[in-house]
Design goal:
mainly alpha, flat, transmembrane, membrane
């Protein structure tokens, strides 16, 4: 892989992670959920990128688990915080 592409990808993922962290520390619940989603996708992508660089065969499974757990955690958090949204 071209080293410039790797450096660009790592810098882009770092910027994305910082944006997700900034959103995660806002006071609104929607911003926290969006920030958490951005962070899990960024970390999963970074792990896949590092696995390609260093030839780590099991890192893809770890990245997939992180992304799935992040999505399931977001849905569970929405269900708990959202409460009963039925219209009466």
């Amino acid at each position: 892989m071209n080293p410039y592409i790797i450096i660009f990808a790592i810098l882009s993922l770092t910027f994305s992670a910082l944006t997700g962290l900034r959103l995660a520390f806002k006071k609104e619940t929607s911003n926290v959920l969006i920030g958490e989603g951005i962070i899990t996708v960024t970390v999963g992508t970074l792990i896949v990128l590092l696995s390609k660089i260093y030839n780590i065969p099991f890192a893809g499974s770890i990245a997939l688990a992180i992304i799935i757990c992040g999505a399931v955690g977001t849905l569970a958090f929405c269900k708990v915080i959202g409460g009963d949204n039925e219209k009466r």
